[in-house]
Every structure is written in structure tokens, then in C-alpha cells.
Amino acid sequence: MVIGLPKAMLYYRYKVLWETFFKELGCEIITSADTNRKILEDGIKYSIDESCLPSKIFMGHVYSLIGKCDYILIPQVVSYGYDNDVCVKFNAFYDIANNTFENINILDYSINVMEGEKEQKGFIKMGKRLGKSYFHSLIAYKKAKKAQALSDQLKSQLQADVLESNQMKLLIVSHPYITYDRLIGYPITEYIKKLGGLPIYADLINKKESLQRSKEISDSLYWIYNKELIGAIKLLEDKIDGIILLTAFPCGPDSLVNELIIRKSKKLPTINIIVDELQGEAGLQTRIESFMDIIQERLNQQERLNQKEINKKRIV
Amino acid sequence: MQTAYLGVDIGSISTKGIIIDENNKIIADKYIWTEGNPINAVKQIIHDLRQQINEKEFKIASVGTTGSARKLVGAMLGADVVKNEITAHAIGTLSVFPEVRTIFEIGGQDSKIIIIDNGIVVDYAMNTICAAGTGSFLSSQAKRLGLDVTEFGEIALTSQNPSKLAARCTVFAESDMVHKAQIGHKKEDIIAGLCMAVVSNYLNNVGKGKMIKPPIVFQGGVSKNVGVIKAFEQVTNEKIYVDANSHLMGALGVAILSKRAKKDKPFNLNISDINYQTIGYECNKCPNNCEIICFYKDDELIDSWGNRCANGEPTERTLKNA
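^ inputs. structure came back:
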């Protein structure tokens, strides 16, 4: 049995969970390739115009897996609990893919906690569909859950270590499916590194802690993925030099939340970068380069002030 | 023999070149249309600048480029500094107006606002994917009215009662303008209305949420339009400073930056006979199909860009295969 994982959207959040679960059940896994122009073009072809860039990319990845596996995994996520909802796209992907592609075989699970559909229940149902027993699936799920938590913790720890670095640190506040996408976020983080900056990723922060701190920016926001990201700003405020809000056109939740961040968090230089399928690389580089120039100037000024203080003390 | 520094600002519409001496004094400057051909524009501008200076007296020690074609022209001239427009404009303006707090910059396709505190840039914004509130908005409307964009400002000043135009978007502004003309609004009122539209568009779009503090300096090609200056003064209730060289600030800034970089290698201005050529092709080596641009100086590959991975790294041979 071969399960296909589209390398888009929730893949970046649940990679370890999915891979461990299916391996434990004795399934083979194939993952679609890193996003490239062809995947994007296919995705555009199989999406409506109004879809957001990441969901077009998602459709391209699904398309690339058709015929290469027995099932393609597409979860259906609605809510993680009261006031913890997600963008409707995560609810819709199963149906969109099912209605767009004729010969597609989808394996799905749903998370809709408000309706009693919890993650564990969904995974056990999937196991059943693959012909595995309740206990076999339950054990696989528990193992997978542990592996995902461990991996998250490890990444979070690694990032905490580099936060002590003296390099210019820029917090990337963006959904992981944008940040780590080979075509959208990756060239941007690479460009930051090339200019001597250190990207810090908001999505690697401990999610429970950041959910808690997100209330300082808004206590009425109900998009959980966005809450997890904005909490990171509050948690790291004193350790970073600037904030990059990286958004894909035309993301609904981000368009509201980014305005909120700009208004409510004024401590640090912040830039809002919107990427679309037209890929204007030159404009992007101008924005990032000048943003980093501004931060560098600020750091230099701070340095000069500190030096003055030291000299003053010496004279005294 | 004195040392001099060259700055070139190659924008979408116009190309600006400047030579400064050790004291940031402008000793030669030139402003021409890019006309979609940055390489030729730069050749021409260098040719013009050479005629303005005595080459026995001045030696060009370093070169800087800025503007949207900065990379291409930077490779062409072997520039020491290739800098983004925001930083270049801020540095240039600060050298003329050290006290400036806000810079309005409206160019052909870009418009920016730069906020300065204590002599350093603290914030900026650029227009997003929209031409509303830029120079090209004005020039396309001028064409529709059968006028030259350079006459616009003077005509706008004669208006007693500027028309109110729906200026959220160039497309709607155009239909609204036609409508106003059809119901009998005077030409000068419509033109003054357009200048006002550029200003309100700029402040709502680019200047959104920014603290605009005086002194305000206005620059870029559109700053030559007195109608727009007047509209800015009306809306902000502040004096708007426009330098006689306001269109050269980017070039000046990057010339100063190249002076600071102090590479101090002799630079040859004799480029008019060199054949520069760009060849663009699709890589086809992987599904990314990167659009690679190779830049040749007399058949020698001197730079390339657009490539995403090692696979497509262009070599001398690429030229023959492409």
C-alpha cells in the first residue's frame, strides 16, 4: 500500500506525524517533489482564479501524485476547539480535489473538535480503511504523535540556541507552507542569509506558549494558525531585530491579522511582503535589501550610543 | 588631478547620471529617457557626462548604480556599489537636506515614502502591485487629454475649482475623467483634479499609517510638476521642499555611497564602443524552467542571473547553445 503526501499546506505541520503513522501501519510513503514551476502551473490550471497561491500550489502537488500511489492523503480540518478555527480552505481541500480530479483516490481524516471529530478518532478511521485493527492504529497514532512532538521540540530548541547569535535576526511571521515552500518562501530566506541576516521562524516556537501570548495582540482572534504565529512575536520581541510578515496573495486571514500586527506591535521595524504567482523577484529583493539596510543603520546607531556611554564612563 | 565619483540611477522611465567631487559637489549631471533600453541609455549618459568634465582634471575613482536596472548596469560598468533605491534616495536627500524627516518620492512606476529620524531611515513603504499614484498614471491621463505631461503642472495651477475624480484606480479614474469632461468640466479643473488624485492616492496607498512629520522633501520625476506640489501642500498643510536637482537624488546617493566604499580603482569611461549584449533563455534542465539572463561584454560572459540552482549555471558555452 502506497500513500502519497502532497508537499504543501499541512504537510509542513504534520510531516512527522503522517510519516510515522503510515510507516507504523506498514505502508509505503511517497512525497511529491519540492514545488517547481511545473507544479505551480498545473496547480493554476486546476484551480479557480480566486484561490490563494498556496492552495493553487497544493492542487499542483496533488495532481503530481495521481497514478503514483494507492491513496493521496488530504485531511479535512475545520476546528481545533472553541474559537480555534482555521481558514475554510482546509475544510474544502478534500471536496475540491475530489471534484476536480476524476481518477483520484483520497485518504482523509477530519478534525472538527466542536462536532466531536478529534484527531485520534480520524486516524483510527483511516487505519480501519487501510484494513488495520483498532489497536494497531491506536498504537501507531500514539507513536506518531510522540515523534511529532519530539521533532517540534528539537527544532524549537535548535532555534533557541541560534537566538543568542550576534547576527541580525529577522523573525519570519508566515505559515510554514509559505516559509518553507521551495518556490515562495525559500528564495526569500536564502536571500536574507546571503545579505548576512539570520531568519528566525515564528512557526518553530512552542505552540502552546505562543497561543497564550497571542492574546496580548488580540484576544478575539479565532484563526488558530495565525494565533500561534503572532504569539511568537510577543515571545521573541526582545531577542530579534525586525519582523517580516510574509503572506501569499490573496490570503484572507493574513490580510486582517497582518494589519493587526502592524497596529498592535510597534516595537520593532516590520515589513509586510505579499507574494503572488507573478514572481517579481527584483521588487522583492529591493524591499528586503532596504529593510535590512534600515535595521543595520539602527543597530549601528545603537552601537555608537553604547560606545559613547562607555567612553563617558572612562572619562569619569 | 582630482578624484571624482560616478552615480547612475536607471529607472523604468528615465536614467540619471551624476559625477561628484570629493565634497559631494555635482560637477556633471544628465537626465534622459530610458526608452526600454537601459544599456543604450547608460552608454549615452556616460558619453554626455564625459563631455561635461575635463578628463585631465578629474579621475573617476568609483562607480555606484541604483534603480530597477541597477544589477544589469552594475555589471556593465563594473560598479563598486549596487544599492537599492530606498537607501540611495535617503543618502542623497540627507546630503542636501540634513534635517529632513519625510521623503515623498514619486517616480515612473514606483512611489515610495521614506521616514527619517535623527538622520537615519527608520521606516519606508513602496507602492504595491498598482500604478495608482505614480508618474505613469499622470502621463497616461495626459495622453488621453492630448497634452504633454510636462505642461500639466502649469495648467493645473490656473484651475479655480479642481474636479473631484474617483482616483482609487487608474482604470476608474480614466472613465470618471471622461465623464467629467462630457458634462462640461473645464480642462484645467480636470487636470488639477488629477494632480489632487495622485496626491490622495499616494497618501492613502503608500503613506498609509505613516507619521508624516516636517520638513518634507518631495522628489522623483513627478516632483517637477508644480500642480502636484501644490496639492501636497494643501493636503498636508506643510511646506514641501523640492530641490532643483530633486530628480537626481538617487544618483547622488549612490555616488556618495560609492565614495564611502572607497575601492579606488581607476575606471574607464570609454564604453561607447564596447558591445554589450544580454541573452535570455529558458533553462529546460528541470521543471523549474528558470528564465536565465546572460550578460555579455564583447562576447565575454560577465554576469548572469535568474538561475535558481547549480544545474543551470551558465557557462561560456551557453551562448552558443542558446
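The longest strand of chain A covers residues 242-248. The radius of gyration of chain A is 21 Å.
thumbs up if we can close this ticket
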